[in-house]
Inverse folding.
């Protein structure tokens, strides 16, 4: 039977992505992967990371804020200064002045969120009191109110819900733990692959976890993106 996996923010760490796929014995033709965004920016292999994801037949790709910045650069040729300093430089260098049309289409066709069996997958967060269709895309890509509320309750509350969903999977907000954590119904999947942490992937049905080695160890001598 096919399996369904979710993966956190990759940030150009192709070697970490390969490790997660290998360690989970991911089937590129039959299994499903939901990617929570930010394949771009940070480590030096954004282009290779996108190529790897495009090999997956059943991929759900959700747009992250770094993907949005990258797409703006791909379309306009202009680099936002904040983006450039937070990993954009590495993304530009990975493309060597040649952006395949398929990569631009990959990011252009990314979803803002995805729902499956009352589970929600989104990069940054949502406003729980508004219909998804009425929310501005900036909330999905940048807003951390839901994440912060859930984190404030981590380890304190064993019951209660923050949204109408059974499970909510977030990227965007890196956590200081080596594996994803759950608080209320919210799963935090960004375990710091863009910084000094690891990349994490999880089977959403069995909750079995697969993590990479610490990403700096996979890119010795290369500095990750700067944190601001």
């Amino acid at each position: 039977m096919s399996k369904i996996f979710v993966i956190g923010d990759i940030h150009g760490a192709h070697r970490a992505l390969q490790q997660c796929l290998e360690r989970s014995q991911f089937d590129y033709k039959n299994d499903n992967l939901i990617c929570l965004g930010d394949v771009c920016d940070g480590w030096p292999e954004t282009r290779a990371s996108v190529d790897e994801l495009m090999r997956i037949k059943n991929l759900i790709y959700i747009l992250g804020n770094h993907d949005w910045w990258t797409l703006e650069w791909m379309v306009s040729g202009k680099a936002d200064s904040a983006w450039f300093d937070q990993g954009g430089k590495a993304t530009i260098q990975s493309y060597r002045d040649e952006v395949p049309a398929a990569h631009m289409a990959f990011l252009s066709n990314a979803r803002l969120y995805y729902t499956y069996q009352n589970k929600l997958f989104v990069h940054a967060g949502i406003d729980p009191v508004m219909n998804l269709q009425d929310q501005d895309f900036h909330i999905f890509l940048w807003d951390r109110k839901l994440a912060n509320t859930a984190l404030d309750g981590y380890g304190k509350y064993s019951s209660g819900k923050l949204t109408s969903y059974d499970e909510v999977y977030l990227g965007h907000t890196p956590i200081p733990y080596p594996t994803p954590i759950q608080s209320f119904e919210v799963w935090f999947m960004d375990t710091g692959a863009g910084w000094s942490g690891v990349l994490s992937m999880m089977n959403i049905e069995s909750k079995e976890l697969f993590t990479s080695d610490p990403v700096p160890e996979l890119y010795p001598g290369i500095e990750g993106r700067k944190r601001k």
Remarks:
- Residues 21 and 83 are 28 Å apart (CA to CA).
- The radius of gyration is 16 Å.
